[in-house]
Amino acid sequence: MANYFKVTDSIYDITEKYPELIAFLAANGFEPLKNEMMRKTLGKTISLETALRSKKMNVELFVNKLEDAIEQSQYSVSTGLTQMKKETGADVRIEGVLPCPIRIPLLERFEGWFNEKKDSFGFDVDYSLQAASMGLDHIKARVLEAGGNPEGLSDLYLSAGFDLFFDQTLMGQYRDAGVFEEISGVEHLNPDFENERLSLRDPKGQYAIIGVVPAIFMVNTAALGDRPCPESWEDLLRPEFENSVSLPTRDLDLFNALLLHIYRYYGEEGITKLGRAMLRSMHPAQMVKSHIKRGENAVPAVTIAPYFFTQMLDAKGPMIPVWPKDGAIVSPIFLLAKGASKEKIKPFVDFLFSKEVGEVFTSGGKFPSTNPLVDNGLRPDQGFMWLGWDYIHQHDIGQLIKTTEELFFGAYKED
Question: Which of 55, 72, 71, 66 is nearest to 7 (CA)?
Fold first, then answer.
C-alpha cells in the first residue's frame, strides 16, 4: 500500500492534502474536525500519531484504513465511480464491498474489461465497489430507503458475509419475494466447494457464491505453554483455552460467520464457550506481530483469522498457522443479481465468475474461488465447515446473528 503521509504530519496538513479524510476522521472519534475553525487551529498543533495514541488507537491499523479511504477516493475519480444515488439515472447499478487485499487488483481488471466493453452495452452503468474495511452501512442505508420496492435496489450486489443478504429488514424480504436469481450458468462449482462433504450451490437458485474467506487458527506456540495445540473448533472450546483466544469482532462479516457456524454445530453452549475463550478482540495484522509479551498472559495463545494473514507470518517466529481438521469456517463472498435485470447484467456476472477473477481471489488474497477452472492450491486435508443451504433456508439468519451476538458477549462480559 502506498505511503501518502507521515504519522508525524499534522492532522491539518493531512486533511488539507486529502479532504476526503475529514468525514472519515470525524466518524471515527474526531468529530471536532467537522468544524473548519477547529481543524485549522487545533489540527495544526497535533500530529496524527499523537491524536491516535491519545485515544489509545492502533496507529498502524488506523493508517491502513486512512490509506484505504484515499485509494478508494482516487479510484472513484479515475474510474468515474458514483455514490450510487438514485438521481444518477443509470440503467444498471452495481455495488458492493471487496476484501482489502484483492480490491485494487480486481478493480484494475474490472476497469480494463469495462472500458473495453462499455460501448457495446447500449446503456449507462454506475458501479461502486468499496473496501470491506469501510463497512456496509452505506449499502444498508440505500436498501432501507428502497422500502420494500425492488426498483430501489441496485441490480447487482457483491459482498462477503451473511448480515446484508439474509436480514429480513434488508435483503431477506426481497429474497422471499423472488427478486434475485442465480444467472451464472455455471454447471458445477470448483470441486473444493462441490463434493461429497459440502456444496455451496444454492438449490433454490437465488444466491451465487464466487469465493470464500476461510477462518483458520494462528497459534502462538510461545504463549501456548503446556497445552496441546488446538486442531479443531471443538478443541478451541475446551476450558483450557478460556481467556486465551483473539477473535475478529470488528470484522463483522467473518465474526458473524464464526458465530453462525459454532451455533450450528455446537449450539448455545458452543457460543458461550467461545465467549469465555476470548481474551481480546485483535485485528489479525496486530496478532502477526504480537508474539512479544507485554505482561503476564497479555498475548492470546490463538487468533482466529482469515487464511490470508498466514502469508504475513515470520517463519522464524513462534506463530504457526493451523487449518482446523473439521474445516476452515466459511464466510462466503456472495453475488446477488436481480432476475428482472438479468439480460443487462449477465456480462458482469460472467466476468465476476471468470477464471481471471477467480485467480485474483485465490492467488492475490488466499480467498479460494468457486470457479471450477481455478486451482486454489489447497491440500486434501484443507476442507471447509459450511452452514449448509438447508440450514440457511430453515432459519432466520438475520435474527440468529443477533441472538448469537447476545449470547457471545453475555458470556464474555460475565467471564
Answer: 66
Tell me if 408 sits within 8 A of 271, measured CB to CB: yes
Residue 278 forms beta bridges with which residues? 245
For the chain, the straight-line distance linking the first and the last C-alpha, in angstroms and rounded, comes to: 39
Cα-trace Rg, the chain:
22
User: Is residue 330 helix, strand or coil?
Assistant: strand
pLDDT digits (tens, 9 = 90+) for 11-63: 999 988 888 788 778 767 787 887 888 888 888 888 998 888 887 777 877 88
**Count of beta carbons in the 10 Å neighbourhood of residue 347:** 14
Overall pTM > 0.90: no
Q: What are phi and psi of 238, to 5 degrees?
A: -75, 155
Which of 249, 264, 343, 351 is CA-nearest to residue 300? 249
Nearest-10 crossing angle of helices 397-414, 252-277:
40
Residue whose C-alpha is closest to residue 335's, from 160, 73, 123, 169: 160
Output the CA–CA distances (angstroms, integers) from residue 67 to 14, 23, 62, 203, 247, in the order listed.
Answer: 11, 14, 9, 40, 24
User: 12 phi and psi, to 5 degrees?
Assistant: -60, -45
User: Are 356 and 179 in contact, with CB atoms under 8 Å apart?
Assistant: no
CB 94 within 8 Å of CB 127:
yes
Report whether 284 contacts 305 (CB < 8 A).
yes
- With residues binned 3-state (H G I as helix, E B as strand, rest as coil), the percentages for the chain, rounded to 5, are 50, 15, 35
pLDDT digits (tens, 9 = 90+) for 109-131: 999 999 999 889 888 899 888 87
Three-state secondary-structure class, residue 301: coil
